[in-house]
Amino acid sequence: MSINSDLNVVFVLGGPGVGKGTQCSKLVKDFKFKHLSAGDLLRAEQVAEGSQFRDIIKQHIKDGTIVPQEITIALLRQAIVNNQHEYKNFLIDGFPRKLDQAITFEETVMKAKLTLFFDCTKEVMLNRLMERSKTSGREDDNIESIEKRFDTFVNTSMPVIEYLDTERHIVKKIDCTKSVEEIYTNVKKALEGII
Ligand code: C5P
Ligand code: MG
């Protein structure tokens, strides 16, 4: 099925533990956004009965590396198709994480209106992740996987944010060392025109 061209897609990017999910949940409570987390979609596919991608997804998540774009883009495309009759505004959280994903998604699914880049120090992110690890049950919230996820973020995902900034001019940077409420105020400001 085709994608409505009048949807608003917002990419939500930033390092592991920066608070992308927290801010997206707040937006969903206050506004009509569909929140699609690429990581959550991959984790669901990883346990989906009969999926041919279970092993490959599991391995990449454990290693903190990026799942091949075909898998992630197919999951996102399907989720958008399933929700586009009810929602006009989509938060795509944790995607694109690699340059090929950004280019293919915008060529074959749709162009993003905006990118929220949650900027933070590694120290703050690490503290948040170690706190989250007590309750998250995530297989990659352990120190070995976390270090690999940071490496991937710096080497593979930061260049995507630079591309979206310098080539597409759609990046708004949010300082995420602040409190959840202060961050949320700035997120809402950045989304003016969409919300
Ligand atoms: O965003 P989140 O931290 O939930 O992602 C968990 C893992 O899912 C990543 O470390 C990566 O292995 C995989 N992922 C991916 N491509 C994306 C988003 C997540 O490969 N765009
Ligand atoms: Mg998340």
From TrEMBL:
Protein location: Cytoplasm
Major subcellular location class: cytoplasm
Keyword Zinc: no
Catalyzed reactions per annotation: UMP + ATP = UDP + ADP
Signal peptide bounds: none
Keywords: ATP-binding, Cytoplasm, Kinase, Nucleotide-binding, Nucleus, Pyrimidine biosynthesis, Transferase
HAMAP family with a match to the protein in the record: Adenylate_kinase_Adk (MF_00235)
Family, per entry: Belongs to the adenylate kinase family.
Protein name: adenylate kinase
Protein species of origin: Hanseniaspora uvarum
